[in-house]
Write a structure and sequence with these properties.
mainly alpha, two-stranded antiparallel sheet, 7 helices, 4 strands, elongated
C-alpha cells in the first residue's frame, strides 16, 4: 500500500468524522459532498483500509494513524457497557441540540454546515450529524429508541428534503 496525498486526504476526512462522532462506525455506503462538490466515499475507504490491514498492506505509520482515531479492525461489536453508554451519550448530546433547533424553528431542516454550541461551549456539527442519522435511518441502522426520538423532530420532513437534494 502506497502512502500518498490521497490516502492522507481520506485519513483527514476520517479523523474529522471521528472528532465529530467519537467513532468510525461508518456504514460502507456512507458518502458526503465536499464544499467544492466532490463526492467522498468515506465508508468504502475505511472498509478498504480494514482489508489492507488484514492482508498486511498498510504501513506501520498508516496503521498507527488509523488506530489514533479509533479504528476497530474487527467488525465484531464490543459489548462493553462503557462503550455502549459512551456512544449513547454522544448520540444524545447531538440529538439534544437538534431538538433545541426544532423547538426554536419548528423544523429540523438543517444544512450540513449548521453548528450549535453545547452547554460546555463545544461546537457540535449538528447539520452533518443529522445527515448521517438520516442516512442511517434510511438504511435501518438505528435503534428503536433513536428512531422514536428522530420521529419527534419530524425526521420524515428532513428526509424529504434530503432525498430531493440527492436527486
Amino acid at each position: 500500500m502506497i502512502y500518498n496525498d490521497k490516502w492522507l486526504e481520506m485519513f483527514l476526512y476520517a479523523k474529522k468524522y471521528y472528532e465529530v462522532y467519537g467513532n468510525l462506525e461508518i456504514p460502507q455506503g456512507y458518502t458526503f459532498r465536499t464544499r467544492n462538490g466532490e463526492n467522498i466515499a468515506l465508508g468504502a475507504w475505511l472498509k478498504r483500509q480494514k482489508y489492507y490491514y488484514r492482508v498486511n498492506k498498510l504501513t506501520i505509520e498508516q496503521t498507527k494513524k488509523l488506530e489514533s482515531i479509533g479504528i476497530i479492525w474487527k467488525s465484531i461489536m464490543s459489548g462493553t457497557k462503557k462503550n455502549v453508554l459512551k456512544k449513547s451519550s454522544e448520540w444524545l448530546k447531538y440529538y439534544k441540540e437538534v431538538l433545541n433547533y426544532f423547538n426554536t424553528h419548528g423544523n429540523s431542516i438543517l444544512r450540513e454546515e449548521d453548528v450549535a454550541l453545547d452547554e460546555n461551549g463545544e461546537t457540535l456539527e449538528i447539520g452533518l450529524w443529522l445527515k448521517v442519522q438520516a442516512f442511517r435511518y434510511l438504511k435501518g441502522d438505528l435503534t428503536e429508541e433513536q428512531i422514536e426520538l428522530l420521529n419527534l423532530i419530524d425526521i420524515n420532513r428532513y428526509l424529504n428534503v434530503f432525498e430531493k437534494v440527492l436527486k
